[in-house]
Amino acid sequence: MKTRVTALLSTLLAASLALSGCGGGREATTTTETTAGTTASAEGFASDATIGVALPWLGTQNWKEAEVMFTEQLTEAGYQPLVQAADNKVPQQQQQIEAMIEQGAKAIVVGAVDGTQLGSVLETAKGAGVTIIAYDRLIENTDAVDGVVQFGSLRTGQLQGQSLLDGLAERKGDGPYTIELFGGGPADANAPNFFTGAMEVLQPKIDDGTLVVVSGQTEFTQVATPDWDNAKAQARMDSLLSGFYSGTPIDGVLSPNDGIGRAILTSAKQAGQELPVVTGLDAENESIVSIAAGEQYSTVAKPTQDLVAKTIELIDAAQQGEELPAPDETVDNGATEVGIYQLDPIVVTLDNAREVFADDPDRLQYLS
Ligand code: BGC
After folding, report:
1. What is the distance between the alpha carbons of residues 283 and 92, in angstroms, rounded to a whole number?
2. What are the angstrom distances between the C-alpha of 33 and each of 141, 327, 328, 344?
3. Mean pLDDT value across residues 127-135
4. CA of 54 to the centre of ligand 1 (A)
5. What is the mean pLDDT of residues 115-140?
6. Are strands 211-213 and 329-332 parallel, antiparallel or unpaired?
7. Shared-domain flag, residues 68 and 105
8. What is the pTM of this model?
9. Ligand 1 atom with least separation from CA of 194
């Protein structure tokens, strides 16, 4: 049976939501002003050690970038990288991590398929003295994690929610506006957090009648997209449009990432709808093209190179046998307080895209 921190947290969250009137999802309990770092490995390890990187899948651009950048940057730093992706399958990821331990990895970076399902393999790793860094996604219910490197997940959702409101005002005249909501894959701790952040912004506007969710589907469990699968999101959008919007325009859609955003736009086009305002995440090349064409309204950039660089900084500290630097915040992962090294995501629309990608020629080329 799958025991999840979600169950406990959602009970707690339900209580707080009852007070605040916010949408669902699990929420990170954060405290600021953390000063002390954690000791990853008091003795350090060889400067050419094997470093494992276990990625969840390669289905979105950010993970493909992570695969390439970890391989290149760990090699440049003198390590031997062992980078693998798990095709969204928990047992596959557990086996990959086991193999990394057997091959003597001194640090393992994990982008979890399901952050609640890695406790036992990571405890084995910890027992072998391995430094464990959660990458992009939280690892839950275990103290076998030395730190989390990510872009703020609640902040990301808040930016998506605000951007939906801004896009509606810009493109759809005065409200009230008809909208629908989409969430990401429920096994990924980021997905409910993105949704919670977005609903902090959107719920008051639903309550005052500015936004109308015509389907009435406003709970994370109703709007989540299993496995972050674009095809599943498109199928849900098709049925929302045929069930609730025949003869009615849809003004906006909250999308948790770019792939799902483009699937929503495809569905709307096929249904003969005027394009709704659609948000996104990852600043994927195809979405930059869509934004430049005036279709997708916005995305949120979370540059992979910055996240990889931050991760390697922590690995270097562990290699030297130093304490990890002080984290920005801590999060209760259901078993312990884990330090979060948090970077700032940036909302991108046609208005600021050139500025945001000024130093990113790969992305800049898609704007012209
Ligand atoms: C990442 C997103 C990505 C999604 C699906 C999330 O955990 O933060 O960048 O789009 O997974 O791969």
Report:
1. 28
2. 23, 9, 7, 17
3. 97
4. 14
5. 97
6. unpaired
7. yes
8. 0.90
9. 8
Q: Quick one: 295 and 162 in the same domain? A: yes
The structure tokens listed for 97 are 């991590």
Between these two residues, 40 and 344, which has the higher pLDDT value?
A: 344
**Domain extent for 352:** 153-302+348-367
Using the structure block, give the residue that is written with the tokens 């660089």. 309
In angstroms, the Cα distances linking 247 to 242, 271, 274, 282 are: 9, 10, 11, 33
Q: Tell me how far the alpha carbon of residue 108 lies from the centroid of ligand 1, in angstroms.
A: 19
Average pLDDT over residues 42-55: 93
Ligand 1 atom 10: the closest Cα is on which residue? 257
Nearest-CA residue for ligand 1 atom 6 is 190
Per-residue pLDDT tens over the stretch 214-242: 999 999 999 999 999 999 999 999 999 99
Calculate how far, in angstroms, residue 269's C-alpha sits from the geometric centre of ligand 1.
25
Cβ 326 vs Cβ 314: under 8 Å:
no
Q: Which atom of ligand 1 is nearest to the CA of 257?
A: 10
For residues 163 and 166, what is the distance between their CA atoms, to the nearest angstrom?
5
On whether both 281 and 331 belong to a single domain, the answer is: no
Q: What's the rounded Cα separation, in Å, for the pair 296 and 288?
A: 8
